């Protein structure tokens, strides 16, 4: 893992340095462009319509660990107005092995892959977006860390995203996302207080 981290870049501080992770080299901090909620760090690909979000969310104690990623996927689907039949689908949920992660404080970690048909900025045109979620459960802090990778697959020509798709060699990959998950590290537990 250290070789991959070295090739891809240094860990980037998140939440004022309380967390860090290796992000793709072309990640632009969206908070420099617009207001972002305090519980989120949002990064956009400077050349495409892809984004990665690290978010602190409330630990859902009534949701079993193996169902928690799906719970958050459905919550995102509700926010994206992608609840009607055929607009969202989960294709896999797998447990991440703790020995492969730097975030040793988590009780369990999961990766979900799915798709949602969503529109941007309340447009009528819907785009098919592959949604990859990483979920780190931290019951001792009453927090889940939710990491999402929005990867547009099919862009409606009428969408404002149609002009945002850059050259394929500049696209982020699932491997970039997995590296973020593997290198996420907690430096200051005071973040959760």
Automatic annotation (TrEMBL):
Top-level taxon of the source organism: Eukaryota
Presence of keyword Zinc: no
Gene3D superfamilies, sorted: Mog1/PsbP, alpha/beta/alpha sandwich
SUPFAM superfamilies: Mog1p/PsbP-like
GO cellular component, as recorded: nucleus
Pfam families: Mog1 (PF04603)
Biological process annotations from GO: heart contraction; protein import into nucleus; regulation of membrane depolarization
Keyword check for Protein transport: yes
Entry's family note: Belongs to the MOG1 family.
Protein name: RAN guanine nucleotide release factor
